[in-house]
Queue: 4 jobs
Job 1
Amino acid sequence: MANTVVAFQSAYRVSEPDLIARVLAGDRIAARELYDAHSPRVYRLAFRLTGDADLAREFTQDTFVRAFGQLSRFRGDSALSTWLHRITVTVVANAMRKVKRFRERETDLEDVHPLGSDSMGVDPVLRERLHRAIDQLPEIYRTTVIMHDIEGYTHTEIAEVLGVAEGTCKSRLSQARAQLRASLADLAPELES
Amino acid sequence: MTEDRFDELMRDAAQTYRKPPQPDFDAMWNVVARDSFGVTNPTRAGRSFRLPRGIGIAATLLLGIGIGRATVTFKSASPTSARTVATTDARTDSLPEPAPYSTETSQYLGQTAALLIALPSEVKAGRANEQFLSRAGELLTRTRLLLDSPAANDPTMRNLLEDLELVLAQVVHLENNQSRTELDLINRALEQRDVIPRLRTAAADISAN
């Protein structure tokens, strides 16, 4: 029985390509390992893009169901995470177009109590206005802003996920930021360039 | 300054804009597993406590063995329970009886077949490394657990599992001696016992059932 434990422990840590090969061979445990490794970031991205926990959960599940269904087509040209996030963005975009609406944030500006500055020194009213302005960006700009400024993806990663040139990604971010500044101009005139 | 102020706002947004809640990843996995593999995976006790690979399978099998043995003891010890079982059986005669551990056995057979088929090329290419052999070790453990489970009640399956136990034990011992002779012995055992075709047949039978 001692050999059993050794066998289990030594088999535990395996590389991602090996896990992928095992999933393709029908190994559900390997699939769970991949899911555990990637689901938190996929969910974060889905939530940031939708602003809705139920939708984010559903889209995360859809992402992995599609990914496992198409795993044999993953050639390893990009990182698995990039491939998964590409599926996530596609799933979210398609589904949100289908329902023809993006979930509006429920809190009205009037409901925000000016509690003063928080630890980052940001006026809550200004913060709320910025959040609304991000919500109202055109989809391609919003996705870029969320991925770069909110979730911390690099331009290279975003370009791979969205299937655009890196220059396009930088340009979109610049345009998006300009629109956000303009949206805040009445509250913070110094932001308007 | 303007750029700095805006960057500060965006850094704040990274912390506050649509801050994701903590979802139930286990429940989500159950949906993914059902839709991707047609089964519901047992939920792990908690995400912060991760069991080593394979322990879940071992636990399931051991539980099954325990239930199987307890059931046999219970049936033989109590005439009343035997009558109850008979009544229940008569009532459910028309229902198909699922093969014991069919899902687990089917997966095990598929994975074992894949490993044994790949073995010659892996050894030849020098890729029968620790990981490959660990996989064989894990399958050997599962073989022994299945031999002690109701899955081995079927004589054909038992014979196959016993042969696989022998072959996998040889594979595991390749670890420190990847000689041509060792591999030849394994290949001979595979051929003499007709292991691969029997594996495929058994897997196909389980799938058909």
Job 2
Amino acid sequence: MGLVIHGWCKEERFHEENGNKRGIVMSDTYIIVVFTILLLVILVLYVFEISRTRRILNHISNMLLEAKNGTFIESCYDETKLSSVEGQMKEWIASSITTSNQLEKERDCIKTTISDISHQTKTPISNISIYTELLSEQELPEDSKEYVQRLREQSQKLNFLIEALVKSSRLETKVVSILPKEHLIEDILEQICDHCDQKAKSRGILITKEIEPCSLQVDAKWTSEALLNILDNAIKYADEATIIKVVGIKYPMFYRIDITNRGIEVKQEEVNAIFGRFFRSDNVRDEDGVGLGLYLAREIVTLQGGYIKVKPGTEPTFSVFIPC
Amino acid sequence: MYKVRNQKVVRRLSFRSFTASRTRNMVAILAIALTTILFTTLFTVIISLNYTSQQQTMRMVGGYSHGGFKYLTFEQVEQLSKHPLVKEFGYSVMLAMPDKEPFTKRQVEMRYGTDTAAKMYFCNPTTGRMPREKKEIAMDTAVLDLLGVPYKVGEEITLPYTFEGKAVVDTFTLSGYWESDPVARASEVWLSKEYVLEKLDGYNPSLDNNMFGTWSLDIMFANSKHIEKSLQTIAQDNGYTIDDSSTDNFLDYGVNWAYTSTHYENGEQMKMTIALIAGLGFIIFVGYLIIYNIFGISVMNDMHFYGLLKTIGTTKRQIKRIIRYQGLMLSVIGIPIGLCFGYVLGNSFVKIMVSSLSNKTTYVTFNSWIFIGSSFFALLTVMISCSKPGKMAAKVSPIEAVRYSEGNQNSNKRMKKEKKGKHGARIYRMAIANVRRNKGKTTLVIVSLTLSLVLFNTIFSFTKGFSMDRLLDRFVISDYLLGSAKYFQANLRSDDDGVSESFIEEVESKGYTTRSGRIYQSNGIAQARFTQDELVEYCARWGGSEYVEYIKSLFASGDNEMFWYIDIYGLDDYPLEKMTLVEGDVSKIEDSDTKGIIQIVGEDDYGNPETETIIKNVGEKLIIHYVDELEYDADNNLIEKRSHDVEYTIVATMMMPNAMSTRSYGSPQFALPSNSYLKDAGNSTTMAYMLDIDDTKIKEMEEFISSYTKNVEKDMDYESKKYMEDEFSNYKNMFLLVGGGVTVVITIIGILNFVNTMITSIQTRKREFAVLQSIGMTGKQLRMMVMIEGLFYTGAALIVACIIGSIVNVVVLQSFESMLWFYQYEYSIVAIVALAPVFILLGVGLPAIVYKSMVRKSLVERMRTTD
Amino acid sequence: MEILKTMNLLKYYGKDENEVRALDGVNLSIMKGSFTAIVGTSGSGKSTLLHMLGGLDRPTSGSVIVDGKEIFRLKDEELTIFRRRKIGFIFQNYNLVPVLNVYENIVLPIELDGNKVDESYVNDIIKTLGLEKKLNSLPNNLSGGQQQRVAIARALASKPAIILADEPTGNLDSKTSMDVMGLLKVTSAKFKQTIVMITHNEEISQLADCIIRIEDGKIVGGEQACTR
């Protein structure tokens, strides 16, 4: 290279080097680009797979929800596995619906049967009462009179039992429904206390009232029935010449009615059992009673969104809570 | 009625609660130490740099005295030195300045001086002592080398010098010597009082312009302020004046400009003060960020404790005091640590900065102000950081504090009461809601993380922009440029200052050369005719109006034209190629009909021709007056003995790179091809020798030339591309190192802040996490939640840093481009992107680790209410 | 149908002299749909028992079977997920997540499971508990009783096999306690949930269908099996 070109030599060399570098870089870049593209493709595929699986699982979860709500309809009829799973689901749902429907029907059947029976027996029983009454008015020998008296008692008991059964079965089958309306609780309590006044006085029992006035949404008839049952029990099982306390307290979310007596002990272990159908504790063998009063009371209160609590012992308190 | 003495109990409470939380203490001490390091480094750098600069200047000037009087009689010396303002003084008298061999190239002064004077001139013997006996002498190693005398006290020295116009040779004994200072421009040789006074007896100083035989008095005052005024006072009090030089009682004085030059002009000082205040404010801010955070968190953790104190009757003030005491105790430990490290760090920085900016030595000073200043500022920062947490603790209502949990702090104030939305129970949403619980704290952490990122990026971008190309373009035009040391110092005086032939031969003999060429030039061999207008226009550029007036006065005699000194270059082909054409046609110079000459114009910082300095136009004629020989006339003035004129035509104006020029300004410059030059000028001094070499041999050549110029021909020097490249890298690295060092400290602080926040936030929520796990949140989900929280901090910091970093890049760094010619702006947030993985890892990893250490206890234990 | 059963549950702490027998051989059987109260003084082991039933703590020996699954055969993470789906907790101090509003707190376990919320069911619970107007409120803006109601709703929302309540009225006054407990009883009856509650309050315990007494880590009274 001549002297003159020498001056540029440096720059030329610089470009040459750069050029070579570029050459090498070219093939390098090529490989890197291909590799990156491959990587990206794999990544995309992977993400796609995951989202597909997720979609399927979501679909199945929705199916289950719909099934629960009873709104499930198959969404696709094709040869995919999903479709066959859907088909299986539908089958199973249908059969379980049928089963539960059947069970429901059988239960209803039973209930209606009981209702019918109770209804049907009403007439013959009232007839028995009438005839027993008639008989008692007749002139009879002494032991006959006694037998008639026993008959009377038993038929009364039978009557009472049937009535209670009818009421409870009606409640259960929802033939009669609870219709809550605005009432003043103090009025209701006043009523039932008056109703029991006679009976209480006959045993020398004083009923004290401490009632916080409150307006509640209740079915007056049925609530009175429930409270009456409890108060009745209280009077029945109380000792002579004691005090029965009726207290009404307003709570933020409930209204509490406490009925406390002193008398036959409510045993701790039986606190739950006494609400059972036909349950009679050993203590009360001697008294009259069928064992349905508390059962009914609890049904009524529970249907209105409340509950009953019992404080056991010799001075037991029955607390009725009604939502307000 | 005196107050109840409850300081003791307060202090005891502080001490006990202080010893109770070890992690908090260690973190706080670390933070305080770091802040102190920053302060100390700042102060050390500023003070040491200042001191170094001052010392360097003083050594260049030749002494550290504040000022003094010159050309005195001995009686005057005695009189003036007694003045009360004089704290310390030294005086000396010069006998001679030998200028014959071997001192032709070095200025040597032979004096008698007091020991104090020797100290003041930085010329006191480190081995041996000042001369006391008549024939004793003391000198520095440079002079010893020139005389070829070994460094040994007691050596015999023969010293030739000129006195009263006659050559004198005398023999002396070396009484002491010291290491010569490479910065000093002259060497001192001390003689005994007896000898010098004997020689000066009967000598009339005015023979040699009062240089010899007169006394100099160098004075140190109490401080370096108002030196001139103090001198004036001393003079006036003794019946002299320093103002009017025509009167009899005039005293010549000098003020050491090493002191005044470091008192910058007002503008500079303002800038320095502002920079200092900005630096202080910045460090206070950074330190505040973290120390406040640490104290804030620790106060929050101890809310129970403070509430309890309140229930038993501690007042607000006392609680604030407790916290302040804790801060004080932590500072007592942390600040000294920071001072030590900061001092060492600061000095290392100064060493690095000085050695890369210039090859001079660094001077380290142990100025107590450094420590006082940094301690003060560090303590100030700690106290400021304690105030708000102190207020927080004091305001605690005793009852609330007993039931304190992280979610309930500001229960009455700005706490949200409601929150719309149904999907907040997702993990990531919970994580974000958690982070937003305490917006103040979150902002704090993010700010400190962002700060370190932005700093890192800015420094990185800044140093990236250091354009090697621009540097090389400006300073280097060939692989090597050989010249005399004087050439590179811009100190050409005579023909002896050219590059030596032996040097060129040695270099060429290596055989690495690919291209080379000479640049001929010598001072004062040519003049040219110019008109008044041309000269005025040209000279107005260099001097002010005064200079212009001076020029005009030279024309006063009525001539419109005048001969003015010019510089003429003779250029070989290779150097000729390096020039850029501005105007005209350079090929015409080959024409044998016209005597062509090229007008030279200089290069500015950006590589553009300084067109204002073009004095003549292309095509104009130029008459050059060559001076061939000079002689002294009867009055001892130099006059021309022989000369000749040549007329040229200017064929072109070309720009010459500064690297190959005389590196001075003031005279118009022209150039001829070498053969014409050698013929016309008759002078063959080569000013510089330019060469390119084989690229593979750069390392060998560099080693060779550098050792040659250091050891063999010490008068020769060189510039090389490699050397420039190395220098530039060093410069760049210095920035990186210093800036990097500061950034590292700040990054540590930011990360520390983050770590602290994460640890405490997870610890405080121990119970909450246990509850979440009891209702069914798996450990994995919980860990994911805290990892997202951590990621939020670092992620937000990264994003904000990108934004702010970009802004700083565009706004600040771009403006540097116009200020620093070697800087080429380039937008870059590479640094932040590079750090991103680290930060992300940190944000995700740290919470995971903390979480792991927390779950070691069983669920039930963690759920206990009493903590 | 038996929904919860423990077999010879033992929990000992410490060694030799310092040995504490928190549970000393407890055999329980809880029927589905019942409301059981476990009553005892502090230190009797009732809290420990509840923690065992909920899988929050592992016994020294013995097993707990929830809905047919022996829970302590599961690993920690599996147990947590089991707990999330099968067990609902109500704590003494509500333990709601402070950064989530009422609605979000209620559906938290469901969301943690990644399931879709059964809106109608959850709305029913919310209405029964009287929380419709407070859905957007944050826990710090609710009274204690309201917070506990939210906790009850949360326990019910995921339809667990069993709800465990740990002194649920401990932080509430007597009137609020009765109210909150009343709601718990009514809603769990309505939604056919099984509840096991520990308390030292006699009145509250009377709300339960049956009471089990525990003393010194052993069952000392009450029924061994609860029927409705």
Job 3
Amino acid sequence: MKRYELISSLAWVAVGVLFCIGSFRLGLGGLGEPGPGFFPFLMSVCLISFSLIHLSSSIKKSGQFNFDVSKRFWPERDGIKRILFTIMSLSVFVIVLNYIGFTLTAFLFIFFLLRFIEPQKWLTVFSITILSTGLSYIIFQLWLKANLPAGPLGF
Amino acid sequence: MNILEQLGLGFSVALDPINLFLCFMGVLFGTLVGVLPGLGPAATISLLLPMTFKMNPTGGIIMLSGILYGAQYGGSTTSILVNIPGESTSVVTCFDGYQMACQGRAGPALGIAAFGSFIAGTLGIVGLTLVAPPLVKLALEFGPPEYFSLMLLGVIMLVSLTSGSIVKGLMTAAFGFLLSSIGQEIFTGTLRFTFGIFELYDGVGIVPVVMGLFGVSEVLINLETKSKIHDVFKTKISGFLPNFKDWMDSKWAIARATIIGFILGSLPGGGMLISTFASYAIEKKLSKHPEKFGKGAIEGVAGPEAANNAACQASFIPLLTLGIPPNAILAILMGALMVHNIIPGPLLMEEHPDLFWGVICSMYLGNVMLLVLNLPLIPVWVKVLKIPYPILFPLILLICLIGSYSINGSLVDVVIMILFGIIGYLMKKFKYEIAPVVLAMVLGGMMEPALRRSLIMSNGSFAIFFSRPISLILMVVMAILLIFPSILKVMRKYWRE
């Protein structure tokens, strides 16, 4: 489990370094007259130092972490598939929303997740999909006027 | 205005039919999202936020705050009946509440949770009513150094109280501060870390980040394992009224929890979650029969449920008097006020007394509604719980998608939400706390100007934070919070040897 602490603290160091370089470019200013880069610089230095402290302490004492060793760290193959498919459908939602409009996108989104993540019966899939898409259209578009994008057919 | 006139004004606003209706809608929605695991008050408030833009601000805030304290009531129902906390603030309620239900005492458990919540919630508002005016006077003396120290204390407190590892908590807090610096900087108008994306000029929105970190990441975690069908209690639940012995067992627990919740809730970084754990720990320690805890002790339900409601009401204190949101949900409420050009802070009580007292008085009414509403509706909530997760999660995701899109009508916010969903998932896997990121991000936007103004005032000397009395006290508390755990560790080692 030590490995995961090392990987994650190195990732945080990298985030800190990126922000650090960025704030340097923005201009730090003096202590009496802090510039735009001052605060992010201070915080990225904090992030880097805390990460390094965590890194060194996790190298020193092994096996003292609050990970549940009895469980695998990453989920089973099927679990990973479910997670990746869900993230993928969220991304597709963003890509197609402006082209085919909210109602159709939501319809396809709900349909896909219901049928392919943990497959439900066809009747359940269709009734829930139609019900949720219709209700969200009525509530958010007609009632709350959320200005969701319309597709080529006008909804 | 004396206190009676203030309350009179408040109730006249709160009893207005429209406001009364909005309060009712708020607590009803709140209880519903409290019952549904994976859909929190933050997501719901964000969803209904655009609706309040066209409303009168008082009515809008009355409804949104109703969602917040309504969710505290709803969360306990699922903890007791299914052993699944509807909200993070009801995790502790599972320990004894579910055990009580297994022993056929689901009714009294639900009953004491509702009554305890009502008593503590109402006392919390009484406290809010009494504490707010003097605190406003004190807040007017606050300069940038005091504000900075107070907010830093809030973040440090959250880190030291919640996370297993303080260093890991500090890392995520620093990350939150970095996120808050994205966007246009207020002193010179310089664009920071925007990469030419127009939508980032105003900074990263708190709503998509919260929905991603809490909503989406939770769904991803749940998808790791195939869903099980939960065992919802099939026996008939009857007799919500706790008997005399139940009351005797839990009266002091409720009283203590109210005080703990009120104190922890009124501090930035304290809040509802911590107060439930604190209350449970204290009740167990003070109890004459600690072995009963975890096996259906009614104090273990009454205490934490009372604590989260008292804390929830108290968390309005820093927002309404100092203009500091103590957590992400109140930060969203603050955003709702700002849309109407109302700046929360010491001047709010004087400039908008109708809003200030109207919202506070609506909470008294809302708590009564919740008590009346909650118990008879439990059979309905149980039905809601029977929706299997594979059907529920697409709906939760759809609500998050609509919510993050509709705030600004921008796809960039949706992308941010998805990204933070993935970040949140990884943070949970690698055991990093999420709450400090959000609080630091919320407070960062105010802390940076406070820090820079302080440094300008002092010509670049950090001594300004230690030479002013209020700020010095806050800094000392902070040092104690950071050093205390290590002292404890050393002492334990010493004793063992």
Job 4
Amino acid sequence: MKTKLLWLSSLTCNGNAHSFLNYHELSLFLDNFEFIYHPIIDSSYTLDDIAKKDIECDILLIEGAISKELKKGDISVIDMIKKYAKKAYRIVTVGTCASFGGMFKNKGEGLHFLQERELEEFRYFKDKTVSVSGCPVHPEVLADTLYMIKRGYDIKLDKFLRPKEFFSYTVHNGCTRNEYFEYKIDNHNYGEKEGCLFYDHGCQAPYTNGSCNKILWNEVNSKTRAGLACFGCTQPQFPKENLFFTKKNMGIPQYLPLGVAKRVYLTLAGISKTFKIERLEKKLFDD
Amino acid sequence: MKREQIMNAALKLFAKNGFYTTTIPDIAKKLNMSVGNIYNYFKSKDILAQEIIKYISSYLGEKLKKINLEKISTKEKTKKIVKIYFQTAKNQPEMIDYFLRVYLSNREVFKGGCEGMICINEFMVEIMIYFEEGVRAGELKDQDFFSAFGLFMGYLGGMVFLKGEGILPSDLDYYIEDISDNIYKALSK
Amino acid sequence: MIKLIEKIEGEASLDFHFKDEVIEFVDINFFSTRGIEDILKQRSVFDALVINPRVCGICGHAHLIATVKAIEDCYDGLFISEKAKIIRELTLNFEIIQNHFKWFYLTIMPLMGFKQYLLKATVPSSIAAKAIATIAGQYPHTSYAIAGGVTSDPVYSDLVKIENYLNEIMNFFKKNVVDIDFEKFTNCEDVNSIFRHRGDLLDVLLKILENGWEKVGKSYDRFLVLGENSYFMSGKSLKTILRENIYLNKIAESENQNSYAKNVTYNKRYYEVGPLSRAMIKKTPLVKATHRRYADSVFSRILARVCEIPQLLNHSLKLIKRIDLGEPSYIKPPLEIGSLSAEGTGVVEAARGSLVHKVFVKEGVIKDYRIITPTQWNLSNGTRDKPAPAQKAMMGLRSTSLAELVFKSFDVCSVCTTH
């Protein structure tokens, strides 16, 4: 029996839908799940059907920031959400916009949260909801979560309803630049394999919940491995300001690694900075 | 607490007579201990010197930490820090003296095992936190750490040095108000 | 009569006005805007590199490249290495390729009455996404192109992997879309010789001819290409009469009442943008030959778009060989961001056509930001007297489903249009 999925788009760029289309086992997925509606690929019903009729739905997937005013033609998006949130036995907010408001928090909200603030409106659905945040969502994280729901596994969720299996890691876990972080080699220049982006270039990986460097993106890489900062896209506050720069107060990073007390960080940093590790001061491999 | 006794006695002698002039026998004599016994606790004079600076850093660090944890303004914290520093200079002058006259002036003694600032880490961390929280609270100007550090500590160290040389006419207490004010004005936004 | 069109990277409504059973005019309306241009205001200019890919989930990379070019245009004396230039062009090519595969298999084939072969769209697209991720970290939504170059430092094995991905896509194209020789295909000047081949493209083209649709979808026969790179040439043409000089100040946007999408004209005229335009300006032999026969009908538009896939694959393989890894990926800009006060424009060719970004910066902060997307060009909401390209293409038809085919032959991106 295929589990019936209803993918509803609110205020979105469709990045989550396209990210999901990169999932490497799509064929098997479609043997297990059926999209009764999907914004891009063929689905059993049209948007009109979904709005006007009562279609059976197992899991409601919401992508995009939720706006009370949003209409598609004469169809009110929030009415559809209310209707199917009741019918579905689980709800999944796909991506950071549907989870926290995200990029479009100026025009909409997440289902249960606006940034970190809990919302009242859909409170009675909170027990049904799982949030897979990310901008975009990682296809494997979404697919695995849907399979876990389908097979009745007891998914442990954090306080933002995100599956702990994926979101207890920090994006820092598994980054190939870790040694530069460990030994506080702060001299990072863009376009180089060496160096850590935490101290100067805004990398939020040490305090961002996600598995990007564990599962890897598109099965091959991650932003930080490619020399780009993690911008904290799974977090309620995404996007913050001055994303390419590390906010420092008198030279000390304002945001420290998750769960690490300031005194601990400063003591370790102080000690690490005292010693020079030659191998890490040089290029990984010379020409 | 033999260890602490040795460190305290050594601290006073080093501060008063200088590092190289003071010998292990001098320290042993002051404590009525044998030289061999001293060496049971500290393998060399250099290592003893390093342990002493760590001890001082821990002592001052602990006092600064208490101030940092208080829910008061940065302005008030500044005054309290100056006060602690001057109080220590008054009541345990050997501590500040050691810092200025032994630690800072005989870097070669501290090279192997006290590289950089690792032995004064606890003290440095609290100063960093004072600065960081001051900037975060919007009271202090964001700037390079060492520029601010030099202003604060250089000023205080300098005053203690002058007192030690007998040049300051009044007690250090007398200067707390104006000095705190100057420091805060210089560092604030 | 209002028809809701869905699955066009969002939705739109077409309001058909009939007269004597013929479509006299069509109002095109888009429903909402996310206000990206407002989100950007007062932010640090580099933040645009993170925000702008989120204009769109399928062509966000084009927005990234347009953004970085607009920002770089603000500096005097900023240089990027040839290596960085090539890498940026490559990743944009890969995005264009996955766009065209998705459009062909998810939109066009079903409209022609065939099944939707989902995997034929997603398999080559996810390989193209891997190719992008190999240098840019992830796809969708990377910001790896920054002012001064790119953030990554690729090695030979990265290039090897990308070449292999491209070859995989080429094999896929040959096996499914059309079994051609890559070098010969676009250089061929006889449209009829295509029909000697087999593949899904042929099935579609034959369907078009069977139904007489090669006469349908004709618009102004006026083409515009604003972006230039090592493959595409900028210019404009009326039919085949080409003018090479493009002046960006002749572009004008205007609000229109019922829709959240703004209209856009060049020198007060509507122009078509996209693969057909690019091929007409570049004078790609096969497309020129097709146009001679079928003008700017759906036949030509579809062929031109699908045709871009082998061209870009081929060209990308050549570009990779030109990369000198010894060059720096990134050259620090000459000015600190806090001192940057200027205007800058970035123009690129995205999958659907020309994309323009304009940024106004004061002391490193965005004062204003303007984006004009390709779908705005094709799908402006003009008037009866002066319809926009897609509107003109639908006028005169008798059936709304045929009109929908014509509409979608322009490859619509609703989210981009309203941004």
